Each structure stands twice: as structure tokens, then as C-alpha cells.
Amino acid sequence: MITGELKNKIDSLWEIFWTGGLTNPLDVIEQMTYLMFIHDLDGMDNLRAKESAMLGLPYKSIFTKEVTIGNRVVDGSQLKWSVFRDFPAPKMYSVVQEMVFPFIKDLHGNKESAYAKYMQDAIFKIPTPLMLSKIVDAMDALYDQMSGLQDTDVRGDVYEYLLSKLENSGVNGQFRTPRHIIKMMVELMQPGPDEIICDPACGTSGFLVAAGEYEKKHHKKEIFFDRVKKDHYMNHMFHGYDMDRTMLRIGAMNMMAHGIENPDIEYRDSLSDQNPDRNKYTLILANPPFKGSLDYDIVSADLLKLCKTKKTELLFVDLFIHMLKVGGRCACIVPDGVLFGSSKAHKAIRKELIENQRLEAVISMPSGVFKPYAGVSTGILIFTKTDHGGTDNVWFYDMKADGLSLDDKRAPTEANDIPDIIERFQHRDQEMKRERTEQSFVVPKQEIVDNGYDLSMNRYKKFEYVPVEYPPTSEILTNIRKLENEITKDLDELEKMLKDEI
């Protein structure tokens, strides 16, 4: 968890951008991402050089003595963060603007890669040498602070805190997914080394990064000691689509910074005909936008066959079914309305999941999960594509706490259901005998069918009513008269005191 001191350093860094004239939060996060990427390139190159030396393997640094930038050849060493940070401000600015930035734009050899495509129109926007010098000093202080913390995930927490500052988050239903919720969903799905993973509304690639980190943690030897599987991991495992080029650019850099060389990150309207992906993926992780409604004419025709609707939250669930291979799995966040909405389209998508696919779990999340952006109530649907049914029982969990307060402050708390959710989901066979009064339980398919395919938690949860015993009416009346007499007595005394003063 990010510390208060670390937040203060990030806030100070953010203020340097704002006072320097960069007031668009998206521009700030984009420029900070570039600089963090440049800093991390230096550290990554040094680490790989040390590892190669220990293993006795040859290693060619990306910062070689001769680096071609445009039409000129320069000394690659001066492109390293650890070198140019000591330059005088004017020279540092010149090196970063004219050499380092063009260098990272052309860093990836594959011109068709996501990184190359979205770095083409990247712009260095820091206006003055003095401002750049202040930013570099502030980032050095930030990284020094990070290095002193034992939390191995502090880099991700810092980036998450930066993303949280995007003031335009929440516009058009596009909410930043909290990082701990992303990690929970990845832990629930336990992706394997042969997965083909997609997020059709990827934003900054949070789900894809978390899935990649899970793979490295749990399947490191299996992936990285096998040439074919390593190639799959680097080039074919991860796929993300979005309609915001800035987000795509940040997402591509985010993936590359986490060691994934060539993710498939593309500009695409996933709901339109420009998305040809059908029966392709083994795992979909997503928090699609809930922006109300679309025009029928921009929605792919095959998505409207199941449920003719303009609501994006329904169309995306339909899309996930189409994009998955048979046997493929999905964990997606949906607004509560998807679980109990009474329209024909709402019922059709729930019926499809239950009758034709295998719906496995519904996790109800508290409304504060997406604060401070929105108080919308959401749930997580987990299902497997079968195209021939298979739903026998559906596991429900009522999440009441996620480790953070459910107000706008989102301060850390001891109450946290996430470890319990992961543990119980992985052992759902032991949940069959749980009572409906408990936080999790299993509901048979037929009961859901009998309730019109309603998937709301409260439809099946039983509430314990504790009887409250009151004293007899006569005793209550006696007590009221006693109080009345005491009040009258006090008023008489007060009135007497006032007369005496006169």
C-alpha cells in the first residue's frame, strides 16, 4: 500500500506540471508515463546486464556506444537517465527532447507492434528546461523513496495513484477499475501459460498487466524456460482494444514496461463490425464502459440477434460470449441492473448465460468500490462458454468490504472479504451446504429459472430477523406519565425562578 509520504512526493511532482502550464490531467499522466518509462529502461538494462554477467551470457545493451537517431549517430550512454540527469538544465532538455524521446519512439524494432503504432504520434510537451530539471529531480526523489519500501508492488501502486488523478475518469461510464479488484479477478480465474487473454475495453491495460504478473509469478519456469511458450507470452497471449489513443499509448508502454514485448493493443470499437474476433480467446477479463446507450447502426449485427438493445453493458456481455472459444472463460464487471433488469434484453442475456453457457458465479460488490468517481453498484459475472449449457448451480457471494473504506476517501481498513472470496471460489464444491443467511451460498439452476433468471443476491439471500421484545403497553404508558410529571415539575420550578428574579 502506498504511504502518505509517497503520495506527498507524487502530489508535489504533479504540482510541478501544473504550475509549469500542463493543466490537462491526461497530458500530465502521459508525460509522467514517458519519463517513468525512460527511467525504468535504464534500470532494466542494468539489471539484464548483471544477470547476463552472472550467467556468463553475452548481452548487448540498448544504450550502445553508437545509437542511430534519425540521420545522426550519437553516444547511447547519454540517453540513460542516470547520465543525463546530471547535465545542466539546457543540455538535459536538448538531450531528452532531441535524442531520448525519438529514441524511445523507435525503440521497438517491429514497426507494426502496438508500441510502435501508438508512439508514432506521441509528443514531448514539457515546455522549458527548468521545468524538466525540476521534474527529473522530483522523480529521482520519488524513486529513492520507493526503493526504501519493502512492498514489491509499490511501483504498481504508484502508477495506480497517478491514474487515480485523472479527473475525467468516470465520464461516459468509463471508470478506472481499482487495482485490488483487478488482481482479485485475475486470482479468481488463475490464467495458465497457454491462455489467449483479451480485454475489449482495455484502457491503460490494467487487467492485461495483472494477468501477465500472475503468469510470471505462478508459471515462470514453464513459460520462460520454453522457447515456444515464451514467444506466445511475449507476442500472442495479450490482446486489448480501446477507442482512446492516449489510453492505448499508455497501455502499450505499461505492458512493455512489465516485460511484455509485443502485446496486441489496437484502436477498435469492440461493439462494431470492425471487430472481427469470434471464437478466438480463452480468457476475457474486462470492466466495459456503462455509458447508457448506442445507436443500432453502429453495433455489429450479430450482437443484436440475442438481445436487441442500445445498452452497452448488455451488448458487451453478449460480445464476450461471441469472442470466447468454446471452453473459454470470462470474468467481467457489470452494473447491478444487468443482474435483475426486467426488460426483454436483460432477461435474454441472463437466460443465454444460464441455459446455453455455464454461469459459475455472481459476486455482488458494495457501491463504494468505484468511489470517488461513482457510487454505482456493481457485480462480477464469471462464466464459461460451452454453447450447450452446463449451468447446474450458481455460486453467490455478498462482498461487504474490500479492504478500503467505502466513502470518497477510500482509506485502508481491516475489513476485507477478498481473500475469503478467492478461497471459497476455488473450493465451491464445499459451499453446497452453506445456509442462505451466510455471506456466500449456492443456488440451483432451476430456482433461478423459476425466478425469471433473476441474479440479484437479495432474491435468494435469507435474512435473520431477531425478535425485539417490548414491555407491556400499560408499563410504557406508566413510564410516559412519570416522565410527563417530571417535566411538569421542572417547568414549574423554572417558572418560579423567573418570577423571583422579577
Biggest sheet, open or closed, and with what strands and sense? Answer: 9 strands, mixed
Q: What integer value in Å does the Rg equal?
A: 28 Å
Number of helices in the DSSP assignment:
20
Terminal CA distance: 67 Å
Morphology call:
globular
> What portion of residues is helical?
40-55%
Strand order of the largest sheet: 5-4-3-6-7-9-8-10-13
Regarding CATH, which class of the largest domain? Alpha Beta
Strand content: 5-15%
Give the tally of β-strands: 13
Q: In the residues, how many domains can be counted?
A: 3
CATH architecture descriptor name of the largest domain: 3-Layer(aba) Sandwich
Decide which structural class fits the backbone: alpha/beta
Give the low-confidence spans. Answer: 167-173
**Roughly what is the average pLDDT, rounded to an integer?**
87
Could you say what the CATH topology of the largest domain is called? Rossmann fold
Annotated CATH homologous superfamily of the largest domain: Vaccinia Virus protein VP39
Mind explaining what this structure looks like?
The chain is built from 20 helices and 13 strands. With 502 residues, the protein is an alpha/beta fold. The chain folds into three domains: 4-161, Ferritin; 177-459, Vaccinia Virus protein VP39 (Rossmann fold); 468-502. It has a nine-stranded mixed β-sheet with strand order 5-4-3-6-7-9-8-10-13, sandwiched between helices. It has a two-stranded antiparallel ribbon with strand order 1-2. A two-stranded antiparallel sheet has the order 11-12. Helix 12 (245-257) links the parallel strand 4 (238-242) and strand 5. Helix 2 (25-55) packs parallel to helix 12, helix 8 packs across helix 9 (206-218) and helix 8 (179-189) runs parallel beside helix 17. Mean pLDDT is 87; it is low at 167-173.
